[in-house]
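User: I'm curious whether this sequence folds into something compact or stays loose and floppy. Could you predict its structure so I can see for myself?
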Amino acid sequence: MLTLNNVSVGYDAIDVLHGVSITAKPGELTVILGANGSGKTTLFKTISGLLRARTGTIEYNDQAIQRARANSIVKRGIAHCPEGRHLFGKMSVEKNLRLGTYPHRNRARTEEILAEVLDLFPILREKASDPAGSLSGGQQQMVAIGRALMSDPSLLILDEPSMGLAPIVVDQVLESVAQINRNGIGVLLSEQNAKASLAIAHRGYVLAEGRVVLEGDADQLLHNPDVQAAYLGL
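Assistant: Here's the prediction. I'll summarize afterward.
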């Protein structure tokens, strides 16, 4: 279980997150909603060790990780797929995927996970030898997600995986996210498409100006008038 308690984070003298408390239960899909600038990316970078919390605690599987290094957090089972993909465009799809295996270095397990990723994203098997930069936006997002899965995580953090993609590709990516969760991996998802993300989630939180302003079961949030007005256009 991932638990954040009263976490505040900032850049220089300015706080971006103010006393944020969230819980992501094992094996569940938890969605974080919020407008641009609400603090979602800062939240994810803090969980994965790229930023340091000024106050509060972060625990994963009952161990404090708020002072742990990013590579140590990956080894503990948390993989972060950041916004923007960050692939090596001239490198092949397969080599991009294999870059995610460094936390375990188990050859047999690496081949097993690679097969699972290629089963999840069959198009990547066809494109395995192609430069990652030659792929479509949706295919590149699949590579980015697959690379994170190659670390064999128990919790996958996904920051805006559908950003910039065509609607039909968004549906494919979110269905893949749902399948990852059905396969037993917990998911912490930031997503602009509130309706589609809540439809596959177990629980959700709404961030506004760095604070949690709503939380609850996904179905409750989907039918909450404030969420409907802010994110669903109702």
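Summary: Strands lie at 2-11, 14-24, 29-33, 55-60, 63-64, 78-81, 155-159, 186-190, 203-208, 211-217. The first strand starts at residue 2 and ends at 11.
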